[in-house]
Design goal:
Blueprint: H1 8-143, H2 147-163
Length: 164
Amino acid sequence: MDLVLPDFGLLFWTGLVFCCLLFLLAKFAWKPILSAVNTREQKITEALELAEKTKAEMQSLQAENEKILKEARAERDSILKEAKELSNQMIEDAKSKSKVEAEKIVEAARQSINSEKAAAMAELKNHVAVLSLEIAEKVVRGELTSDDKQKALADKLAGDINLN
């Protein structure tokens, strides 16, 4: 029962020690503890504000990075599209140039063939003419071997000349 109902002396000394301790703590320890707690609270607040600023800055940087990445992708796509169009155009140009060159070569070959054909025809005509003359000469010689045949031919030619 002593624990439940303490003596008056125990209460007095406990109160006196408590008051002295309270006075000493208030006089010497309370202000440094409060200033340390306030300083710590201020540092925590500053750290939280800095964290919020950093978070906002990171979000803005991330948004900016996304924007730059989208622009880079769009630029890459446009460059690839332009390069593809340019390559297609170069291929078409090369095809058209090759067609023109092929047509020029074919036309030159045709002209060469025609000129060689004409030259061959002229040579063939000359050769045929020479052969015809040789054959005619042989035929005429064969027929004009006698004087009678020569006189008859001369008369005939003279008659043809007079008729014209």
